[in-house]
Amino acid sequence: MGRYNSFEDMDVWKMAMELAERVFRLTEKLPRKEDYGLTSQIRRSSLSVSGNIAEGFGREHTRNKLNFYYNARGSLAETRSHILYAQRVEYFGQKDSDDLLKLVSGIWCELNKLIKSLKIKLTTGRSKNSDEI
Q1: d(CA 116, CA 21)
Q2: How far is CA 79 from its chain centroid?
Q3: Is 1 part of any domain?
Q4: d(Cα 16, Cα 107) in Å, to the nearest integer?
Q5: Can you give the pTM of this predicted structure?
Q6: Are 83 and 104 in contact (CB under 8 A)?
Q7: Would 3 be classed as within a structural domain?
Q8: How far lies 109's CA from each of 75, 80, 116, in Å?
């Protein structure tokens, strides 16, 4: 995983921010009737992924970090569900949906690696500085 000076250095945060940006742009095209429905839900859940990664980075204790990375993963699953819904009701085209789902899968894998490394840290009692992972 490596040592990071800021959450902004983390590839998984960069990917999550890209997801939020792409979701924002794509939802600009949704009907106004969705402003308080799908539009707000998917924007909120996609932005929550990068927010939870950043908050986890700022936590000192491994268990606290893990909780925020789990929250990020939960928000990512919610975002995936919203993307699948938008595809089914034909708000998002196949290519846009596929591109977003590919990015979601990549973030999911990176979060799982991060979570796994922190769980190993907890079980082995390895001590690391708080700016790692």
Answers
A1: 27
A2: 9
A3: no
A4: 7
A5: 0.89
A6: yes
A7: no
A8: 14, 14, 10
